[in-house]
From TrEMBL:
Source organism of the structure: Sclerotinia nivalis
Region forming the signal peptide: none
Family, similarity comment: Belongs to the cytochrome P450 family.
Keywords: Heme, Iron, Membrane, Metal-binding, Monooxygenase, Oxidoreductase, Transmembrane, Transmembrane helix
GO molecular function terms listed in the Swiss-Prot or TrEMBL record: heme binding; iron ion binding; monooxygenase activity; oxidoreductase activity, acting on paired donors, with incorporation or reduction of molecular oxygen
Protein name as it appears in the record: Cytochrome P450 monooxygenase
């Protein structure tokens, strides 16, 4: 038995624990950063919407879009982007923004054989009903009929 083994503890020391925690943190941050970079590069160059014009940062991540919506300035930024890039702008990795009225019927009109657009997930406060996201299909249809004349070509 050597003299050194008598003084060694079988338990990890504070230094080895700190080193392990540091290693796990660095590995986690590296993996998250790598994921963000790989998904951003995919969104920029290989995504099905990659050919549409728009700011590269908007195509890279949802972060600029989210910040713009939180600040309430996204409509101004979209207008500026449409002035710069044209009638179709990629506003987020999975979103396009259109400003031509012809697109309204292509995107929002009911077409036979095309599935219905999903309803929103907004849940109004108790005692109030949402005008556009009504969960009852018949009530939604009634509200839609009363509003549809405002969205015609003549309007």
């Amino acid at each position: 038995m050597s003299a050194r083994s008598i003084y060694e503890s079988p338990w990890p020391t504070a230094t080895t624990i700190q080193h392990g925690i540091f290693t796990v943190c660095v590995a986690s941050i590296s993996i998250i950063t790598l994921y963000i970079l790989i998904s951003g590069i995919y969104n920029l160059y290989f995504h099905p919407l990659a050919s549409y014009p728009g700011p590269k940062l908007w195509a890279f991540s949802n972060f600029p879009n989210s910040i713009g919506r939180i600040q309430g300035l996204m409509w101004i930024r979209l207008k500026d982007a449409h002035d710069k890039y044209g009638p179709i702008v990629r506003s987020a990795p999975n979103e396009l923004s259109f400003i031509t009225p012809e697109v309204w019927s292509d995107v929002y009109a009911k077409n036979p054989g095309r599935p219905e657009m999903p309803k929103g997930y907004y849940v109004p406060p108790p005692g109030r009903e949402s005008l556009f996201d009504h969960p009852v299909h018949e009530e939604h249809q009634r509200i839609r009929k009363s509003l549809r004349n405002g969205f015609t070509e003549r309007a």
